[in-house]
C-alpha cells in the first residue's frame, strides 16, 4: 500500500458533464488531473492540467485512445463519470492493468441493473425497498397519473408526464417500449453515496433537489434522514454496487419515500455534497489507489444550500 504513487495524475472521463467538471474541481490543488471527453469543446478540458479527446464509449477505439492519453500524460488513476463508459472499461480491465492505470469499476451486473430501469424496478421489489408501481410498455396494474420514460436513458430526455389515457397514449407513441410508473408526489431527493469494496456504505449525503434543469439539480439543500440512508444501504447491497453512486427518489410530508433510480457514478449535483463536508471524491480516489477509505472524512453537515453550484450555509 505504501509503495503506491499517489502523486501521479488522475484521469477523469466525461469532462464535458457536470459530474466530470465537479471531480476535476474537487481535485484541484490535491492531485494533478487529466481530462478526457469526446467533445473537443467540453468545458472540463480547460480546467485540468492536461487533456485530450477520446471517441465515444460505443466506438471500438474508445479504450485504446484512453490508454494512449494516460500513457502520454503519466496518469495512473482512473475516475469514470459516465455510466455508458463502464461496460467498455469493465471489459478492458486487463488492458487497464497492463497499462498501469489503476481503477475501481463496479461489477458489470450492477451497472446493468442501474442503467436498465426495468431491471432496477425489479431489484427494488426483490430488496423490499419502496419504489413506484412500474410497467414496461403498458400501464396495466400501474395507477395513474404516470411518468413515461425510456428503459435506458440519461437525465430528463424523453421523459413525459401523463395525466390521463390520451396523454399516456401520446407518450408511449413517442417512447416505444418505455417504462410507465406511477407519478410520485413529494420532494425529489438525491443521496450521493460511496460504497467500499466490501459492499459497505461508508458515506451518504441526502440532499433535496429543489430546482432541476435538464435532470441536474441546480438548487438543493442537504438534510439528515437515518431511515432513508438505511434503505439506501439495503438497495445498494441488493444491486451489488460499489464505488460512487447517486440514488434518486421522492419523499412526502409524512416521512415516506420511494426510489426511482441509481446512477453508478458521481452526480451532477456533487458540489453540494462536497461543500457539506463529505470528501466523496478524495476518498474514492484513495480507494482507487488501493488505500483505505476513511469514514470520518465522509460526514456531512445538514442544511447546506446550493444555488447554481455555489454552496453556502444558511442559518436562518
Description:
- By secondary structure, this protein is of the alpha+beta class.
- It has 3 domains: 10-103, Rossmann fold, CATH 3.40.50.20; 133-183, 2-Layer Sandwich (Dna Ligase, domain 1), CATH 3.30.1490.20; 187-313, D-amino Acid Aminotransferase, Chain A, domain 1 (2-Layer Sandwich), CATH 3.30.470.
- The chain contains 10 helices and 15 strands.
- The termini are far apart.
- Mean pLDDT is 92; it is low at 310-316.
Q: How do the strands line up in the largest sheet?
A: 13-12-9-10-11-14-15
N-to-C CA distance? 46 Å
Helix percentage range? 25-40%
The coarse overall form would be: globular
Summing up helix and strand content along with how strands pair, one would put the structural category as alpha+beta
CATH topology of the largest domain: D-amino Acid Aminotransferase, Chain A, domain 1
Mean pLDDT: 92
CATH superfamily descriptor of the largest domain: ATP-grasp fold, B domain
Overall tally of domains? 3
Count of strand segments: 15
Gyration radius (Cα, Å) is 19 Å
Contiguous runs where pLDDT drops below 50 for at least 5 residues: 310-316
Task: Write down the CATH class of the largest domain.
Answer: Alpha Beta
Q: Would you list the SSEs in sequence order as H and E? A: EHEEHEHHHHEEEHEEEEHEEHHEE
Write the CATH architecture name of the largest domain: 2-Layer Sandwich
Note the beta-strand portion: 25-35%
List the helices and strands and how they pair.
Elements: E1 10-13, H1 18-27, E2 33-37, E3 50-53, H2 62-73, E4 77-79, H3 86-90, H4 93-98, H5 108-115, H6 117-127, E5 134-136, E6 146-149, E7 160-162, H7 165-174, E8 179-182, E9 187-195, E10 201-213, E11 216-222, H8 226-239, E12 243-251, E13 257-263, H9 270-275, H10 280-288, E14 304-307, E15 310-313
Parallel strand pairs: 1-2, 1-4, 2-3
Antiparallel strand pairs: 5-8, 6-7, 6-8, 9-10, 9-12, 10-11, 11-14, 12-13, 14-15
Amino acid at each position: 500500500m505504501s509503495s503506491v504513487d499517489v502523486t501521479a495524475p488522475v484521469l477523469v472521463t466525461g469532462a464535458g458533464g457536470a459530474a466530470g467538471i465537479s471531480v476535476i474541481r474537487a481535485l484541484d490543488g490535491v492531485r494533478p488531473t487529466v481530462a478526457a471527453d469526446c467533445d473537443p469543446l467540453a468545458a472540463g478540458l480547460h480546467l485540468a492540467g492536461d487533456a485530450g479527446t477520446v471517441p465515444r464509449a460505443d466506438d471500438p477505439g474508445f479504450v485504446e485512445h484512453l490508454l494512449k492519453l494516460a500513457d502520454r500524460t503519466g496518469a495512473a488513476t482512473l475516475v469514470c463519470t459516465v455510466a455508458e463508459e463502464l461496460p467498455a472499461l469493465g471489459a478492458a480491465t486487463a488492458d487497464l492493468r497492463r497499462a498501469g492505470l489503476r481503477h475501481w469499476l463496479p461489477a458489470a451486473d450492477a451497472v446493468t441493473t442501474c442503467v436498465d430501469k426495468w431491471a432496477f424496478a425489479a431489484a427494488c421489489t426483490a430488496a423490499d425497498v419502496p419504489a413506484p408501481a412500474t410497467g414496461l410498455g403498458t400501464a396495466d396494474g400501474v395507477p395513474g397519473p404516470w411518468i413515461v420514460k425510456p428503459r435506458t436513458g440519461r437525465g430528463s430526455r424523453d421523459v413525459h408526464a401523463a395525466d390521463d389515457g390520451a396523454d399516456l397514449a401520446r407518450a408511449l407513441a413517442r417512447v416505444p417500449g418505455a417504462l410507465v410508473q406511477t407519478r410520485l408526489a413529494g420532494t425529489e431527493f438525491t443521496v450521493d453515496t460511496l460504497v467500499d469494496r466490501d459492499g459497505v456504505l461508508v458515506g451518504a449525503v441526502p440532499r433535496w433537489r429543489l430546482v432541476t434543469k435538464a435532470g441536474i439539480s441546480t438548487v438543493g439543500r442537504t438534510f439528515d434522514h437515518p431511515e432513508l440512508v438505511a434503505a439506501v444501504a439495503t438497495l445498494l447491497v441488493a444491486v451489488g454496487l460499489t464505488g460512487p453512486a447517486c440514488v434518486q427518489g421522492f419523499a412526502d410530508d409524512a416521512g415516506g419515500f420511494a426510489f426511482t433510480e441509481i446512477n453508478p457514478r458521481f452526480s451532477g449535483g456533487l458540489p453540494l455534497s462536497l461543500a457539506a463536508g463529505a470528501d466523496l471524491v478524495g476518498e474514492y480516489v484513495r480507494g482507487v489507489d488501493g488505500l483505505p477509505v476513511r469514514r470520518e472524512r465522509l460526514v456531512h453537515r445538514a442544511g447546506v444550500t446550493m444555488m447554481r453550484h455555489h454552496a453556502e450555509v444558511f442559518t436562518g
